[in-house]
Write a structure and sequence with these properties.
The protein has 419 residues and is of the alpha/beta class. It has a domain of 179 residues. The protein is built from 18 helices and 11 strands. The protein has a 5-stranded mixed sheet with strand order 5-6-7-8-9. A 4-stranded mixed sheet has the order 1-4-3-2. Helix 2 runs parallel beside helix 8, helix 2 packs across helix 18 and helix 9 runs parallel beside helix 14. The protein is globular.
Length: 419
Amino acid sequence: MDNLPELQTIRRGSASIINSGTTGQMLMYVLDRFGPHESLIRSRLGFGTLEACRTIRIIQLRLSTILEPVLEGKTEESIGFVGPRHYRSRLDAPTKEFIDAWKLGTDFEEDDLESLKGLGLDKSVVTFLTAPRQALLSVGASFGRWAFIRKGNGGYHLVIPWALADTITSAVHMGLLEGLSMKETGAYGLLRGKVFEKMVARKFTTAYRDVSVKVRAKSPGQVGDTDLLVDMAGHTRILVQCKGRLLRPIGKWFREEMFVSDLERNIIEAASQAKRALETQGEKINAYSVFIVLDAYFAGASAFSFAGGSIARSLENLPRPVILTYYDLDYLLRRLGEDELRTYLDWRMNVMRSRRFLLHDEMDVIWLYLNAGAQVLKNVEKRQVNVAVIGRDPVFYSETIHALDERIFPNGLPDGETT
């Protein structure tokens, strides 16, 4: 790991950018990722995954209901943006009306929690996410584990509302580890890895009709195994390495050497495993691409995969390597048809090699492909410019939150809310 500026950039990004998934994706992840551990979670944390997701959504819907009347009718101009390349000379401070609404939406008294229980809120989820006062005074788990702080009068204050879904995805895992014995932790970790592989496999079989997925494939003489071999119509084979390890909080927020260790254990280790599989199987495997699917979110992994340094070297000689998170894979398979995947992978290789684009994660790459078209690279190179891309898909956000709400509120949203 000799490229320190590269690592520092990724670490800073990972600390300041939450996971790349939508709220719907992240809470669906909680249901699917931790569902196989449901009995363990209930016995140790005092609630189940369904209660956790319902509680998070009820809190979000409450805040949205309170803020919407204040924000209704506001335009891009009223918040500073007035047209391409033109901005207001000053930004107004939030109105008292907005601040009062924000306080109302993020403060919870005991009576508030009690009134929300009838809608499906579980108070034990709120107390589980409430930090002891000292927890946020030093470097540690921080917002990967805590969402609320106790107020002086005994109520609860929601610190960063927009990170709430992201927090619960890691807090359940971290909360379990806090109470498990060494033996229990080993058994939990073993099952956790197998669950992640099944989740990734299910994404392929759900999205594509004509697909075959082999789990833990192994050839004679191969050291280890291949997590997934995905065969699609048109003789397209994807070799998939799944890395279900999370980025440890102390590495994400503080210790660079631990971040480096997590990086190696994820991207670089997965690349080495893929190379061993390809070398053993030779022409028989004939993989068109290698996907490294991560549970942990490393900001900038897509950009740095072709930017030199240890990450790029680990990927050398792999066919069309793609580093992406579980959420990115979901987006890719939903937005790109089976017959379009090869075209995208070829286009992607050329775009990444050009180093003309700053792309934090795979969703940015997919968004660029879908919205800018195949000619974008030629146009950018002709003008000799570099482009930063931030992929944003409001339709996808709505689709995923709607699917989540149908799953956790089968009888409809509480109090007539709509997504």
